Amino acid sequence: MTTSLTRARLACLCTALSLLTGCSLLSKIRGEANSDRTTAAPATTTAKAAAKPPIDARPRAAAATAASIKHDPLSDGIALYDAGDYNGAIKRLASAHEIWSGDKATKTTALKYMAFSYCVTGRRILCKRQFDKALKLDPSFDLAQGEKGHPLWGPVFDKAKKRK
Q: CA 19 → CA 30, 37, 67, 105, distances in Å?
């Protein structure tokens, strides 16, 4: 009993440490290093630590890359879907002006992921409506081979496709 309790405490401690380290690294990458978050270096340093450049002296290529990446609402919506946040995916895709003022392929992809999200959350009527919109926009719209046989949206898509 003591061993399992010790393991559980160790696992919690490791998880907390990982989260804190990740937050610290993320703020460094973003260039948000606040002076109140950093701690002063100890007065004595080893030769190995002295040879390592301070974090602020390192190139900020990662920060520059992260800052230069533009958020693509379609990619954001797909990422939310992939992460299992289906309602978040629907909201992101439905509200993105860039998607609905974009090209046909962008719109049909957004509609497809909205349909998938509606189907996996049990809203088959809304799922079918998205497929209907996609087929109206592009009558040749079709699912990829691996998407066609899905037990939730496959039959809904087939029904929408037959209707068109």
A: 16, 15, 22, 38
- 57-75: b (≥16 Cβ within 10 Å) or e: eeeeeeeeeeeeeeeebbe
Report the distance separating Cα 88 and Cα 140, nearest Å.
28
| Integer-rounded Cα radius of gyration of the chain | 24
For residues 131 and 111, is the Cβ–Cβ distance under 8 A? yes
DSSP state of 56: G
- CATH code for the domain of 107: 1.25.40.10
How many degrees, rounded to 5, is the angle at CA 115 between CA 109 and CA 121? 140
- Residue 66's pLDDT is 42
Q: What is the mean pLDDT of residues 31-54?
A: 44
User: What's the average model confidence in pLDDT over 36-49?
Assistant: 44
Q: Which among 131, 139, 84 has a CA at the least distance from the CA of 110?
A: 131
Domain containing 27 equals 1-33
d(CA 113, CA 119): 10
Q: Is 48 contained in some domain?
A: no
